[in-house]
């Protein structure tokens, strides 16, 4: 689809189920949620965009909070995803609770994966990653230990192999994410699930528990993973998400397939 003249790519895993919008984190793209979509089908129809500057979506003139939220709202409206559950990991988690704060009528529930309301992150390490390499193998070698986190983002271009994003854009983007967003996180009281990886270097246990305590209708689930819970423990992540969604279905008296 086109948003303000830009291509916004998305995966719609389809099916008859209720809508769930899944927003990825920095360096990732929509297909990072493919396993979750399969696990939730057919009860839930997962739609996962490549957010601006990621994956197959075009770069944007900015990576502002307003820009990311606007893209998500336009996609929901475009697909007619009335009262969607919105799930977000890291960057996507902030986008999710800010989307709910600004467009509460679009969001029926939130699932936030391992991100806080007060953020001070640094992605400047990615500026050392190569722009192009002659082969995929050479690119992986130059990426070193980071390569295992970037497999979905590796692409072949006319001038060699590279990543599906510009590292400088990621640094710019995280600079806009950093700050205190507590007011947005507390702005709504729709049902919410906060999933914390207990070995995460991004979200501390104290911060996660404070977020869940301060916001009404918020459940906290902890899994023994690092920051990327959905990738490290896909089965545990899907089971945790499914249990929360089943609770929503019972409370709303929605039919199940």
Describe, in plain words, how this protein is organized in 3D.
This protein has 257 residues and is an alpha/beta fold. The chain has one domain: 3-Layer(aba) Sandwich (Rossmann fold), CATH 3.40.50. Helices cover 35% and strands 22% of the residues. Strands 3-5-4-6-7-12-13 form a seven-stranded mixed β-sheet, with helices on both faces. Strands 1-2 form a two-stranded antiparallel ribbon. Strand 4 (18-23), helix 1 (34-40) and strand 5 form a beta-alpha-beta unit. Helix 1 crosses helix 9 (234-252) and helix 2 packs across helix 3 (91-102). The relative contact order is 0.16. The model has no long low-confidence stretch (mean pLDDT 96).
N-C termini distance: 30 Å
Largest sheet: 7 strands, mixed
CATH topology: Rossmann fold
How many domain modules?
A: 1
Overall pLDDT score? 96
- Report the strand count: 13
Radius of gyration: 18 Å
Number of helices: 9
CATH superfamily: Alpha/Beta hydrolase fold, catalytic domain
Order of helices and strands: EEEEHEHEHEEHEEHEHEHEHH
**What is the 3D shape?**
globular
User: What would CATH call the architecture?
Assistant: 3-Layer(aba) Sandwich
* Spans where pLDDT lies below 50 across 5 or more residues: none
Global structural class = alpha/beta
| Name of the top-level CATH class | Alpha Beta
Strand content: 15-25%
Give helix % range. 25-40%
Widest β-sheet, arrangement of strands: 3-5-4-6-7-12-13
